[in-house]
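If you are new to this repository, start here. Below is one unmodified record pulled from the training split, so you can see the exact layout before writing a loader.
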Amino acid sequence: MSVTALRRATRDTVSGLPREFWWLWTSTLVNRLGAFVATFMALYLTLDRGYSASYAGLVAALHGLGGVVSSLGAGVMADRFGRRPTMLAAQVSTAVSVAVLGFMVHPVAIAAVAFFVGMSSNASRPAVQAMIADIVPAKDRVRAFSLNYWAINLGFAVSSAGAGFIAEYSYRAGFVAEAVMTLFCAVVVFLKVPESRPEKAASPTTAAGAPGVPDADGVRLATVLRDGRFMGVVGLSFVIALIFQQGYVGLPVAMGTDGFSSSDFGTAIAVNGVLIVVLQIPVTRLIQHRDPRRLLIVSSLLAGYGFGLTAFAGSVAVYALTICVWTVAEIVNAPVQNGLVVQLSPAHGRGRYQGMYTLSWAAAALVAPLLSGVVIDHFGAGWLWGMCAVLGTAAAFGYWLLMRNLPQAGMTVESGQGSVEVTGTGTSTAPATSSPPPRTV
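And here is the target side for that same chain:
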């Protein structure tokens, strides 16, 4: 691709999105640039504090459990109180708890605060995803989610290197730096990001007795749980997340068992971050108007068999090659699956639906370390990679079953009440204009 073509592709990818989205994108990038706790918690506890690996694993599990607990509650808050207040509460709580964690000494106190850090840091995700869906038109949502995912990975790639240098000087300085940057995110949201939650819909019957839109309060967690197609997507998301998590829990253990060093793993896994930063924008341009059904099926197969190929790896180069395969799956799957979740979510229940979706990833982050450890210890790493291939195949078949009759996202049809948007469960009863555009800043 020529430089001119690359510039054109980049311009087409980033143009046309609302200003509010870019402030939200900036907040996400800064948040990930300050990531320290999730990356260096284990090293901090074992090397700096002198605790055992078992205790470090317990704290990591509690951090993940906090994310599981907050997912649904944060989704309800985003719908009931608004996206912006939920993000602000989560970010301020994260800043305070991360700063406190850096000064904790007693093991019980460290574990308790780590749980709260996991809970507060995960609480903003359903609100962020719901806000993107609120402010970005349906035709641009895959592109917007892809750019947000790119910001997450770019920030993580930079922060991992920078945090390593900070850790050599002082782990506590890393905690404080993350707290400051998270607080800065809250300031950006407070000053530049307006509330985007759609106004409450009309009652089921208007004054004239004509049918109207079901009230927003009709969307409960029970409503989400009864949505069979959506819960199927959540289940498949959990399976896909289990596969991708193995790149950070199963892969380093397997490489260590094969005699490779931690620097070898670092070299190999760096390919993941580099590819996402380099390829996310051009791949987004390629996939944004393609059939999401095929993209999810193909990405599931690439993820499963990308990890399956790891069973044949015997060198760092081959490990890196397998990482290339499942990284392409990750680049495609993340924005398309986010777009599918929005497509299946009613506008007034996006927070609850996004909370349930976030729960699938948080639960996978909690289960994946236990699963990989048991399989590798009792059967060997080869069985783990074979299991990933089976799970990827099962997920691809599951997406094919669930999406056979799913209308294309973003389509509009004419009805007696005007233009309405087609959602994953059929035609929305809400007029397409029922949700006003976000207020300008």
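Two things worth knowing about this chain: The chain has 17 helices and three strands. Confidence is low (pLDDT under 50) at residues 202-217, 409-441.
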